[in-house]
Structure formats: C-alpha cells, structure tokens
Amino acid sequence: MNALLDDLLWRGLIAHSTDLEALGQHLDAGPVKFYVGFDPTATSLHFGNLVQLLVARRLQEAGHQPFLLVGGATGQIGDPKESGERAMNPKEVVAAWVERIRSQTTRFVSFEGDNAATIVNNLDWTAEMSVVDFLRDVGKHFPVNRMLARDVVARRLEAGISYTEFSYVLLQSMDFRELYRRHGVTLQHGGSDQWGNITAGVELIRRSDQGKAHAMATPLLTKADGTKFGKTEAGTIWLDPELTSPYAFHQYFLNTEDAKVIDYLKVFSFRSREEIDALEKATEDEPHKRLAQKALADDVTDIVHGVAEREAVVAAAGSLFGRGELRELSPVVLQGVMKEIKAAEVRLPIPLADAFLVSGIVDSKAAARRAVLEGGAYVNNEKVGDPDMVLDREHLLADRYVVLRRGRRTVGGVQVASS
C-alpha cells in the first residue's frame, strides 16, 4: 500500500476510489498533478470545503502538485440539488465570489517549491467555447441513458429538472479533461456527493483522449446520531471570520461529542497516529478533561484562522468565566463572543435585574435580585453587591458590551442597540 493512501485510509478520508491499487502505483511513480474544485455558490468557503483543502495539503506534503479550481463557469450553473432547481446568481456576483474564494484557498496550500500550487478558473476555457463545439467535443461522449440513471437526476425527473442542471456533469467532466490536456493532471478528489461527476470526468478522458486518470472521494462526515457534521442551529460553519467568528468556530469543535472526536481529529488535524492514539486513550480514561476536543479545536482553528487568533479566542473563553481580564480582549473577539452567547440588545441606562432577565440567565427580576443578594451575580467578572444597580456607559466593554454571569457557569450578555 502506498504510504499516503495508507494514511488517508487510516484517517477515514477515502470513501470511494477508481482503483486503489492502481492509484497507489500511480502515486508511487509520481509526483502526480491533482485537482479539486470549488464552485462559488456563496461569499465564502464552508466547513465541507475545508475537508478537501486539507486533503489537498496532505497530497502536496507527500510531494504531489495541487491545482485548485474555482468554478467561474460551473458556479453560474450549479450542481443539481435533490430538493429542486438552484437559483442562478448574476454573472457579476459569481465573478466577485470567485475572487473571494480564490483568496481563501491560498491559505491552505503552498505556492512555493517544485510542487507549488496553481489556481485555475474554468471560465478560462468555457467562455469562448461555442455551443456547437461543446456538443460535438464533449456532449457526444455522454450516453443520455447513463445520465438519466444518476441518482440525483432520477430523483428529480418526476418533479422536473432543467437541461441546464442536467448538463452540469458535462461541464465538470470537461474541467478534468482540460486540466489533463493543459497541465497533465491525472487525479481528482472531492466529496462523496460529487463521485458521479468525478468519475464522469475520468470516463471522458478515457473516451475522448484514450487517457488514464484516477479519482477518490471523501465520506460525508456525520455526528453520532447520523446528522450532518458542520451544521448548527444558526446554519453553516463558514471559513470567513465575518460569517463565523473564530470564537464560534473554536467553540463548535470544542463541543464535539466524545464518540466522534477522534474521527474528526484524524480528518482535521495533522497530528501523528501516536499522538491521536494517545488522545483516544485519554478520552476513554478521563473524558471529563476533554483533551481530544481541545486539541481538535486548537488545531483546526490554527489552520483556518491562525495561531494568534486561536490564542485570543481561548483567552476570551477563559475570561468569560472569570479566568481572565475581559477588558483586555479586542473589540473583534468580544463581538464574536457576544454573538455566540446571543447577547440581547438594550438601551442604557438599564437596571441590572432587567439586564439579567433579557440576557436569559435568570427567568425573573426577583431571581436576578436573589442572585445579587446571595453573592452570585457578576458584571464583567466583578461581583455585584447592590440589587438596585443600574448599568450605564461606564460598564461597557469596547464601548458596547457588558458580560453578565450568575454563579460560575451561567453566562449571558447585553449590548448597546445600534442606533
């Protein structure tokens, strides 16, 4: 077994492959040029894209050369969804998203050395292509009966699917062939939900160019109850810090359930087998210490947001529960903290009892007053002794926020309403 594939299998990162033995031989004979694609369907890459970016990094660190494709063309079409037709975004919107996503991808692979990464845009080879050329050169290699048999298409046939979405597989397959022809790319990887599109590209290369290409796909990550990992009640986990704050990002991984934390460490961390095995044993022996969760949250936040940002959010989490100075936190970190604890908007001045109530840490004003009288009420980590206290501007952190706490663990907050 090729050492890289052996590691990917151990990490649970291979759900499908065209021919694992042949792929191993191809990698051994390398270096191999490979690609992974990202369609610009939003302003930011998300949690699911991170899995592919880290697979690309692992391949590059093993000596292979990555090509990161941002779909300026396919992003205008959209891969078929099971739930219904995708809304088409304006071309100028897609173009702006392409640039944002292009910028995001640069943080995860190296653009230096003999196997430096390259970023490509499939609009470069589709923009000037005529419909007739597309049908003659690409469409003739796709039997309609096989396209109709694809799971997502078959499920959409009764409700209806446009020819636009039906043809998406041709565009993605052409991407693989173009990279094969232009750069000698012979391997594509992606998520298991893209397996049909990926293998169609392998087949196109075989049919049109009599070439040999390889493919592999990662599994869908799930929680212990089978639901999709990477989703919260608030929605998607984004890589853009303006959409998902580094604090919320770190907290999401910190709250990983024991049953799955080692699986996620293998995927998102570059720790060795020995280190992960030790963390697995620690989780079994001393689960209350949550050492694996802390390692996971720290590692993935380091990768996505940087060490300095991770240190700031760890300090913020400690400060929130009285183990640090809240006033030393930056406004950006405080903003992420207050969003995560769902700070209520208020206008100053406001009685402390009212602030405790609207922040959700007590269920009545009477309970707030009792917390003060019993010595369990805190404002910005300072114990409060006056139940009639009124919050005003002198209590604000970063000119907007107040952190409230009842006892050791019940935390909430308020923020001055935007004018």
Layout of helices and strands:
Layout: H1 3-10, E1 16-17, H2 20-28, E2 33-38, H3 47-61, E3 65-70, H4 91-105, E4 118-121, H5 123-126, H6 131-137, H7 144-148, H8 151-156, H9 163-166, H10 168-183, E5 187-191, H11 195-209, E6 214-218, E7 231-232, E8 235-236, H12 246-254, H13 258-268, H14 273-285, H15 291-305, H16 307-320, H17 331-340, E9 344-346, E10 350-351, H18 352-359, H19 365-373, E11 377-379, E12 382-383, E13 390-391, E14 401-406, E15 410-416
Parallel strand pairs: 2-3, 2-5, 3-4, 5-6, 9-15
Antiparallel strand pairs: 1-6, 7-8, 10-13, 11-12, 11-14, 14-15
Q: In a few lines, what is going on in this structure?
A:
The protein is of the alpha/beta class and 419 residues long.
Commentary on this structure:
With 419 residues, this protein is an alpha/beta fold. It has three domains: 3-220, HUPs (Rossmann fold, 3-Layer(aba) Sandwich); 228-305, Tyrosyl-Transfer RNA Synthetase (Orthogonal Bundle); 310-418, RNA-binding S4 domain (Structural Genomics Hypothetical 15.5 Kd Protein In mrcA-pckA Intergenic Region, Chain A). The protein is 46% helix and 14% strand. It is built from 19 helices and 15 strands. It has helices at 3-10, 20-28, 47-61, 91-105, 123-126, 131-137, 144-148, 151-156, 163-166, 168-183, 195-209, 246-254, 258-268, 273-285, 291-305, 307-320, 331-340, 352-359, 365-373; strands spanning 16-17, 33-38, 65-70, 118-121, 187-191, 214-218, 231-232, 235-236, 344-346, 350-351, 377-379, 382-383, 390-391, 401-406, 410-416. A six-stranded mixed sheet has the order 1-6-5-2-3-4, sandwiched between helices. The mean pLDDT is 93.
